[in-house]
């Protein structure tokens, strides 16, 4: 069973205690992300004049936007990986097919070479026989 971790983090200038089954490093990373988002939003004109509820909603919307963009990017990467896996499989299949064809062609060449050698010997024998007959 996983161990629950607890750590103190600084979010928006306030110390908070976070706990979860993730590592303390991960919890700190999440807090760092939220702080960066808050800083990013704080730099927008008119943000500081918004109510706390509106600020929280804007933070939620920005986090959700980042999440959906990252999720879509992950989906695109998965699709690309599947395509590359499929292409790799097809290339491996083509390679194996080509290797089989090459082996068959090499066997055919060897067989033809053997037949050619036999025919060459037969030609030599016939030439000797013909040469012997012409001398007589």
From TrEMBL:
Keywords: Cell cycle, Cell division, Coiled coil. Transmembrane segments: none annotated. Pfam families: ZapA. GO terms for biological process: cell division. The keyword Translocase does not apply. The keyword Transmembrane helix does not apply. Residues 67-136 form a coiled coil. This is Cell division protein ZapA.
């Amino acid at each position: 069973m996983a161990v629950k971790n607890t750590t103190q983090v600084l979010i928006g200038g306030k110390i908070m205690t976070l706990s979860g089954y993730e590592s303390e490093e991960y919890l700190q990373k999440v807090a760092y992300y939220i702080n960066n988002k808050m800083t990013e939003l704080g730099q927008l004109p008119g943000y500081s004049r918004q109510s706390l509820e509106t600020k929280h909603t804007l933070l939620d919307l920005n986090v959700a936007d980042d999440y959906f963009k990252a999720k879509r990017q992950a989906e695109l990467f998965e699709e690309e990986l599947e395509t590359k896996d499929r292409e790799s499989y097809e290339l491996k299949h083509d390679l194996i097919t080509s290797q089989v064809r090459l082996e068959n062609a090499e066997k055919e060449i060897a067989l033809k070479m053997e037949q050619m050698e036999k025919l060459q010997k037969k030609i030599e024998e016939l030439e000797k026989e013909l040469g012997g007959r012409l001398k007589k």
